[in-house]
């Protein structure tokens, strides 16, 4: 059986070239006689892999020297706690709640200090990004937190909030490396890699140097201190070694594709194919405010739960996998990350047209 078009929100589709390359290196990585999975993380071969991956990421994102790059574990969810534990010096942080993941981060932070919800789009089922140009930022806020791309709802911050000089912390799990970013605008950029970069089990944290201190909240576990991981270059303990290796391959793939500006163009082109169809369809419709639409996650509905279920079932039979919307919102969602080829989106739209004609 061949590969299908996989629209999963994560773990998600990876570039076929990368999968083939890692398959080719499975039994004998570059003459070492072993797979990267079997290799000591302290070996010379592995050191080259992790250092190379970091350098390629630095090149792709143009990461300045005063930012450290960490490859950690615990998923994006562990960062919900690690961020307040390390950054809440004044025990105050401001959260912009634009979806379930931002809300979870906000609720977690509230365990450690005063977490303020300074804006939210929950009143309209997180279908838009609130105006963040003049928010009531707390005077003593240690940071302002956003989830930049909302995987479940399909919204994205097109402009970053005005933090009035406070440190910006962003969860970019579902838009990581999908377009160029100005790293200097953030204190921390982090994300789980299982959507746009690699296999689940790795979380990448890009953190500005001045935020890395020993002064963490009392009781912060050693494993949850950024400083420990920085000092040990992501090798305080055994890192998610194989996952980091695959991430490194994806970084090289992205470089070969032409980098993040090229990815942005490709992603805009792919998303436009789907959104343009949705905008003129008489059956399907997008569920979020047009200006805030994500390039990565595209939710849509027919307005009829039975018809939605029929669509998902028939799409699956036709080779379009994982189109069911998140369990909390229903409907459909097509996640079209970097590695989803344009042909996959075109084929999906053709299928939707056919379904529409048959179900008018
Ligand atoms: N943030 C965002 C934006 C996500 O989409 C997800 C996962 N789907 C998470 C955080 C949680 O990630 P993890 O499962 O790696 O903890």
UniProtKB/TrEMBL annotation:
Record-level Gene Ontology MF annotations: O-phospho-L-serine:2-oxoglutarate aminotransferase activity; pyridoxal phosphate binding
Subcellular location: Cytoplasm
Binding site for L-glutamate: 42
Binding positions for pyridoxal 5'-phosphate per the UniProt entry: 76-77, 101, 151, 171, 194, 237-238
Pfam families assigned to the protein according to its UniProt record, in alphabetical order: Aminotran_5
Entry keyword Cytoplasm: yes
Protein family according to the UniProt entry: Belongs to the class-V pyridoxal-phosphate-dependent aminotransferase family. SerC subfamily.
Top-level EC class: transferase
NCBIfam families, sorted: PRK05355.1, serC_1
HAMAP family, A to Z: SerC_aminotrans_5
Protein task: Catalyzes the reversible conversion of 3-phosphohydroxypyruvate to phosphoserine and of 3-hydroxy-2-oxo-4-phosphonooxybutanoate to phosphohydroxythreonine.
Cofactor names: pyridoxal 5'-phosphate
The organism of origin for this protein: Anaeromicropila populeti
Aminotransferase class V domain ranges (all copies): 4-347
Name of the coding gene: serC
CDD domains assigned: PSAT_like
Claim: Transferase is one of the keywords in the record: yes
One cellular-component annotation, GO: cytoplasm
Subunit structure: Homodimer.
Cofactor note: Binds 1 pyridoxal phosphate per subunit.
N6-(pyridoxal phosphate)lysine modified-residue sites: 195
Main location: cytoplasm
Pathway(s) where this gene product acts: Amino-acid biosynthesis; L-serine biosynthesis; L-serine from 3-phospho-D-glycerate: step 2/3
Catalytic activity from the UniProt record: O-phospho-L-serine + 2-oxoglutarate = 3-phosphooxypyruvate + L-glutamate; 4-(phosphooxy)-L-threonine + 2-oxoglutarate = (R)-3-hydroxy-2-oxo-4-phosphooxybutanoate + L-glutamate
Protein name (record): Phosphoserine aminotransferase
PANTHER family reported in the protein's UniProt record: PHOSPHOSERINE AMINOTRANSFERASE (PTHR43247)
């Amino acid at each position: 059986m061949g590969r299908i078009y996989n629209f999963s929100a994560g773990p998600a589709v990876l570039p076929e070239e990368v999968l083939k390359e890692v398959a080719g290196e499975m039994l004998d990585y570059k003459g070492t006689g072993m797979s990267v999975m079997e290799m000591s993380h302290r070996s010379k071969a592995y050191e080259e892999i992790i250092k190379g991956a970091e350098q390629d990421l630095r090149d792709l994102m143009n990461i300045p020297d005063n930012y450290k790059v960490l490859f950690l574990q615990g998923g994006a969810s562990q960062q919900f706690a690690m961020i307040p534990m390390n950054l809440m010096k004044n025990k105050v942080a401001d959260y912009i709640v634009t979806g379930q993941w931002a809300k979870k981060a906000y609720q977690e932070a509230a365990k450690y200090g005063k977490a303020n919800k300074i804006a939210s789009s929950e009143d309209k089922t997180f279908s838009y990004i609130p105006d963040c140009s003049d928010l009531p930022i707390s005077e003593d806020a240690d940071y302002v937190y956003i989830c930049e791309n909302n995987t479940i709802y399909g919204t994205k911050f097109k402009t970053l909030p005005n933090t009035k000089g406070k440190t910006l912390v962003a969860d970019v799990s579902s838009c990581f490396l999908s377009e160029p970013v100005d790293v200097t605008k953030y204190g921390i950029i982090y994300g789980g890699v299982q959507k746009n970069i690699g296999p689940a089990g790795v979380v990448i944290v890009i953190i500005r140097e001045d935020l890395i201190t020993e002064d963490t909240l009392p009781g912060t576990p050693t494993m949850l201190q950024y400083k420990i991981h920085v000092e040990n270059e992501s090798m305080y303990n055994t890192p998610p070694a194989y996952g980091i290796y695959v991430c490194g391959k994806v970084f090289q793939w992205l470089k070969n594709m032409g980098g993040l500006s090229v990815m942005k163009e490709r992603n805009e082109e792919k998303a436009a194919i789907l959104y343009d169809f949705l905008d003129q369809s008489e059956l399907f419709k997008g569920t979020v405010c047009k200006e805030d639409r994500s390039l990565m996650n595209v939710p849509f509905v027919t307005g009829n739960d039975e018809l939605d279920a029929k669509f998902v079932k028939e799409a699956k039979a036709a080779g379009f996998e994982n189109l069911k919307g998140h369990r909390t919102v229903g409907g459909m969602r097509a996640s079209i990350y970097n590695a989803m080829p344009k042909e996959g989106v075109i084929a999906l739209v053709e299928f939707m047209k056919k379904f529409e004609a048959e179900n008018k």
